[in-house]
């Protein structure tokens, strides 16, 4: 591990490459920041090492494993140089700070230039996207401290101003320093993204303490001790009572405003697509007459409060009975409006945007009800939630844009948890089904417009899943270990049988020797193969067989006879020790060894060669016609082989049997040695194992389908947007 202290490094290179004197106020900050970043970077590299080792350990091929080990080796060798380069670059930022606004504008300009983007390779683009996301997240998360620090640094450095501020600790500068430092690493894009991810997790996400410390040092030095920030003007005022609170509240307000601005972005996009679709169909924009009162906002929410959550009260006892529930939401809402009374006597009508919102909810549930990936019982249960979700989105359109929206999180969690359901499952006795059923019932009976109900139910469901997953994970781990042990034992037995049969097939061995090898020594070889990773005795056990057969040959040459005299004592000792270890014929072991010594002595005295056994008939080569039939078959399943190779541990699939029944299971282990894919059910118990070729054939026949595990609402929104775009193209 490289544990070089950042302070130690900085003392050696404090003024390296810098002609400009660092302001006195900044020197202490530089020392603290470079040392702190050095420590954080060490944690990131340690995590990268662990991640690559785990990936190599779970690799599905030797090539993939070698790739990860090579990346580990490359990073370990060059890690110290990368750390030194990163710290040196950060130190230079304090000596010659780049102008933050200029750098940011340049970055935006590069991103906005479509011609430039077209020239960027896929790998570079993927890396740039990861960096942009990292920088954007850091700026949003540390907005208050960054604004204060930028203003104070701009006050300290000569040549900096409000129009051209500087901040050596800006996230874009630190990320730029790191990407420059890792250019020396000869690794592929996947390993590079792992490196960036851990840098984000261990360094960028922990900048807060360094930013706060830098602000504290500057305040102690008297640099704008009382700070107040107003929106985008960047003006500061001295106010002892409102300094910190004002800056934080202002930053929070700005962050909230930008969040609100983007919270409806997805719906706005869909609204525009629907408007374009109406225009293409020749439908004019809606005009309202004077006797129409447009209902929207809180007034519409109040009217919808009278809408019953459950349109089938008889189904409350068992909500998953029957087919999924289909509701024409727009018709239901229009019926409510038709019955509504307005104070001015005008006829109530929906806003065009609200009507689009209702249609969007209907389209989402159309996708959900057609989604093959959802198990049938869960699909039926979620279909009961159309009206509650409609009330949610009418009140809060951010449902479509915020992945962390309570109602959206709960729907995604219900769908994800129920992916392993099969129609053959016993619902009445299953705890997961009971929990999902009770959650849907509570929403239908308790939801009154307060979103906190979804938060409460989501927390309860996550706690329940955590308990259930712990149980199933333990069972799955035991299943996986048991299967690996069984496969390894099977392979060990096959290897032992093959080695012994190959060697004894060429000679007619004396009966006592034959019995020892087949019934005794083979058991020792079996154990040696299983323990070879630790004890490395497999080759020794094979050598004993070879030595025994060689010693049974009569030898006439003096050199061979001298070698025979040297080999036999050790051979007998090894045989006895191995047979004792496997408890072979323990009561008559001495007699067995005496017989073996007798056979060896006879062979030593004999003058003729050992009798050679009859050669086994050679196996006929497969006919060319068989080969020609196999080649087209390989070509047919080649496409499906690629799909099988894309399966990863944890992926869910559905198998369909010849009789029409089906069951769902999860890929739990890929045992390369035996070309074996092991699948388990929701409880972690093994349900089936298949070879790679078998799975490809199952896919070709349509008997196996890989299930999509992405978040339900995300997939539904993608499908709706894609459909609308194709219709308006």
Automatic annotation (TrEMBL):
Q: Where is the composition biased (Low complexity)?
A: 235-258
| A family per Pfam | DUF1631
Basic and acidic residues bias (residue ranges): 620-630
InterPro entries assigned to the protein according to its UniProt record, in alphabetical order: DUF1631
Location of region: Disordered: 1-21, 230-262, 606-631
- Coiled-coil stretches are none
Q: Which domain of life is it from?
A: Bacteria
How is this protein named in the record?
DUF1631 domain-containing protein
The organism is Marinobacter xiaoshiensis
